[in-house]
């Protein structure tokens, strides 16, 4: 979005206005396939001309438009990392980071750049918090005492928490900085399925390829809008020229027919077509392929399938999306490594913390006994509903702000199969099948294609569905998932299962939920409760995705941690 904005801004800048066209006319090379400016050939020349015409400011702006400056600087919240020389006469300050999840690790990592003395206290035996990748050999006991031992094969894994990263998130900047390789996460696949049951009409209980549902949804919408436009229903909103242009757009958008002169009903008809799929497919010689006939408009509307397509347009859910190669926890471990083992205390469960006259003290338990640590500052990155339960001398209003969040649950099951039936039988390579059953989402893995085994996320659900599965035992969860999955994929959903592991965030120690929201009743994210946590309370700072507008994203945790670091550092250096 921001890139297009910048391109537009650059094009609008008066100094270069008109230059683009003149420039194109003067021999700029357009790449033959992409139809875009071939920048490699022309950018120096272009910039030189812009520089001459508009001066350095315009030049910089145009460089942004051409993607030649750091896109990050323009697209993510600005952040200047600390430098070792920053502390100077202020002396070495000690910071206790409460929680070794993504916010805590980011805070520690950034503080270390400025020469702070940092200790991270983490209750778990590993870094990352909700960033958790489960592999064969991992053992886990939840708060209800249910123990699972994962038996995934070598190379197979499930991301029990975060699993996808949008392009504009600083999460990718940290991957780059820390050398964590990434690969595409397929968040949208035309050949994955949609499934709706308990709906009226012929599509009830019918698995539908996403491309078919989308072609029909777009096609019928375009047909109706084209008819209304052409028949004059929208004349008060459209000029005659607008109408022709809209009709042209709708013909392309919906793959609909042309105007049939004298026959409004037959005009702009959606009659299906190849974009929804073929049986048989186009092939050799005379095999032109036969498009699969469209669903009736009324059935399509009754199915609610069209409502799914807003998902892929979400700011943070639109392709391209990415994942670290080998599991999301590669980020957590890279941060932990950069912070350094000696500064990270695992199995350190915080039980009490206090502001003191000139610092903080934090009490925590370890397998070896109770310990106390003192520092100049603390950054509390614990989930707010957990922080609210911990003994402290924070003012009651702060504790009540922490406790005012509403907690959302989420659950996932990883199911390893001895063959990649989604690829072999359905030709689905990555992406998400979505259902209105308790499974909600099934993720076809975006790694290990064509391998001899693979691990599906057999469900990824939230709220009531997550609670439903969370109340079952792990074997019951698998059985239920298989029952539901068979409705869409048939018996293969239950065949050749070699391992499974299911995660319920509500019953997870140190998390007790998947993510939080700020209820409007207490002012939401503009209210005094939320705002009070953006400020330090004495020497205690707060950070976490819950203190961002990217809740339930690692990006939110990271940018919140950066802000806490900046604010703490500004205070130290102002003294
Ligand atoms: N980031 C999580 C996910 O992508 C949770 C989330 C879902 C956040 C949808 C926003 C929108 O699944």
UniProtKB/TrEMBL annotation:
Domain of life: Bacteria
A single BP term in Gene Ontology: amino acid catabolic process
SUPFAM superfamilies: FAD-linked reductases, C-terminal domain (SSF54373), FAD/NAD(P)-binding domain (SSF51905)
Annotated ranges, domain Amine oxidase: 102-566
Any one GO molecular function term: L-amino-acid oxidase activity
Coiled coil: none
Protein name: Monoamine oxidase
Species of origin: Micromonospora echinospora
């Amino acid at each position: 979005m921001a890139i297009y904005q910048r391109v537009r801004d650059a094009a609008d800048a008066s100094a270069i206005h008109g230059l683009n066209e003149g420039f194109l006319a003067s021999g700029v090379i357009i790449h033959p396939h992409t139809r875009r400016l071939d920048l490699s050939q022309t950018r120096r020349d272009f910039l030189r001309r812009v520089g001459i015409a508009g001066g350095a400011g315009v030049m910089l702006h145009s460089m942004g438009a051409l993607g030649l400056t750091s896109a990050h600087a323009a697209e993510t919240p600005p952040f200047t990392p600390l430098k070792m020389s920053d502390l100077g006469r202020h002396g070495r300050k000690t910071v206790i980071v409460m929680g070794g999840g993504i916010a805590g690790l980011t805070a520690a990592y950034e503080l270390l750049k400025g020469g702070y003395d940092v200790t991270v206290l983490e209750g778990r035996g590993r870094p990352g918090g909700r960033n958790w990748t489960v592999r064969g050999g991992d053992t886990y006991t939840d708060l209800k005492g249910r123990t699972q031992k994962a038996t995934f094969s070598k190379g197979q894994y499930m991301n029990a928490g975060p699993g996808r990263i949008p392009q504009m998130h600083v999460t990718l900047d940290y991957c780059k900085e820390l050398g964590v390789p990434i690969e595409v996460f397929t968040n949208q696949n035309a050949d994955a399925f949609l499934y709706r049951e308990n709906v009226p009409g012929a599509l009830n209980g019918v698995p539908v390829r996403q491309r078919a549902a989308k072609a029909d949804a777009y096609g019928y919408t375009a047909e109706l809008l084209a008819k209304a436009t052409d028949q004059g229903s929208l004349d008060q909103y459209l000029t005659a020229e607008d109408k022709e242009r809209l009709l042209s757009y709708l013909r392309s958008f919906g793959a609909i027919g042309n105007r049939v002169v004298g026959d409004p009903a037959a005009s702009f008809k959606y009659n299906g077509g190849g974009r929804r799929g073929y049986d048989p497919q186009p092939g050799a010689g005379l095999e032109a392929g036969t498009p699969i006939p469209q669903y009736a408009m009324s059935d399509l509307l009754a199915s609610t399938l069209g409502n799914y397509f807003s998902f892929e347009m979400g700011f943070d859910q639109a392709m391209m999306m990415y994942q670290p190669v080998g599991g999301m926890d590669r980020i957590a471990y890279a941060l932990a490594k950069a912070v350094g083992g000696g500064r990270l205390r695992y199995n350190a469960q915080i039980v009490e913390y206090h502001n003191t006259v000139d610092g903080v003290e934090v009490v925590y338990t370890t397998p070896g006994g109770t310990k106390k640590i003192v520092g100049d500052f603390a950054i509390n990155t614990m989930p707010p509903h957990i922080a609210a339960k911990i003994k402290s001398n924070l003012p009651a209003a702060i504790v009540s702000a922490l406790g005012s969040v509403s907690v959302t649950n989420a659950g996932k099951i990883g199911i390893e199969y001895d063959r990649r039936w989604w690829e072999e039988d359905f030709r689905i390579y990555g992406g998400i099948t979505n259902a209105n059953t308790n499974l909600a989402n099934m993720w076809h893995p975006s790694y290990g294609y064509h391998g001899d085994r693979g691990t599906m996320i057999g469900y990824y659900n939230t709220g009531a569905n997550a609670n439903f599965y969370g109340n079952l035992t792990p074997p019951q969860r698998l059985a239920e998932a298989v029952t539901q999955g068979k409705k869409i994929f048939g018996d293969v959903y239950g065949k050749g299962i070699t391992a499974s592991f299911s995660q319920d965030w509500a019953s997870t120690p140190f998390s007790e939920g998947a993510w939080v929201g700020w209820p409007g009743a207490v002012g939401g994210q503009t209210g005094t409760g939320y705002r009070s946590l953006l400020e330090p309370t004495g020497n205690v700072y707060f950070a976490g995705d819950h203190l961002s507008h990217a809740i339930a994203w690692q990006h939110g945790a990271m940018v919140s941690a950066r802000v806490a670091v900046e604010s703490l550092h500004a205070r130290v250096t102002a003294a």
